[in-house]
Amino acid sequence: MTTSCKLSMLLALLASAGAAHGQIYKCQPPGGSVEFTDINRGSYCKPMDLPGMTVPAPPRRVAPSPRNAQPAPVATPGGFPRVDSAEQRARDDDRRGILEEELKNELQKLATLRREFNNGEPERRGDERNYAKYQERVAAMRDSISRSEKNVDALKREIANIR
Predict the structure, then answer these.
(1) Does pLDDT of 103 surpass 50?
(2) Average pLDDT score, the chain
(3) pLDDT reported for residue 20
(4) Could you tell me the strand order of the sheet in which 25-27 lies?
(5) Between 100 and 7, where is the model more confident?
(6) Are 23 and 38 in contact (CB under 8 A)?
(7) Are 22 and 55 in contact (CB under 8 A)?
């Protein structure tokens, strides 16, 4: 590699890495090649003095200590609309009714899926002469049952969270 090529690589490195970090090092391990980096890798690295390329190191972020950590107060804007308790209760009742209707429908769907699944041995259809097609349908049914059970659990949790 020619000297001008190395110099251009160094300048490119300095332009990209120098903007993000404060110090550039020239590292030359015994019997190794020269490397320019922003990490001091030991006694074989020497800081470079580059005029015009001094960039302060970025400030380090300090995580708050757990003992002093308190949630920040949430400020409600003055013009934020308020809902009186009777209106909120009516909204919650509507929500509960909708969720209970969805739960009823999902439970019916789950019962139908389980009946068709027949404990993992659903009846074979005429278009399933190939056993692999039958297995695919059984796997799809198993997935549908699992998804429906998760939906039922989620709906029950959601209903329990309503005040």
Answers:
(1) yes
(2) 79
(3) 47
(4) 35-37, 25-27, 45-47
(5) 100
(6) yes
(7) yes
Q: Does pLDDT of 125 surpass 60?
A: yes
Calpha distance 40→22 (Å, rounded): 12
Alpha-carbon span 44 to 25, nearest angstrom: 10
Q: What is the token pair recorded at 124?
A: 């074979």
Q: Where are the alpha helices (DSSP H) in 57-84?
A: none
- How far is it, in rounded angstroms, from Cα 50 to Cα 36? 13
Structure-token match 């309503």, residue found: 162
* DSSP single-letter state for residue 126: T
Alpha-carbon distance of 125 to 116, in angstroms, equals 12
Give the integer Cα–Cα distance in Å for 94 and 101.
11
The answer for 118, left when phi > 0, alpha when psi is -120 to 50, beta otherwise, is left
Q: What is the pTM of this model?
A: 0.48
Going through 43-106 in order, the beta strands assigned E by DSSP cover: 45-47
Is residue 20 classed as helix, strand or coil in its secondary structure? coil
The 10s digit of each residue's pLDDT in 79-101 is: 788 888 899 999 999 999 999 99
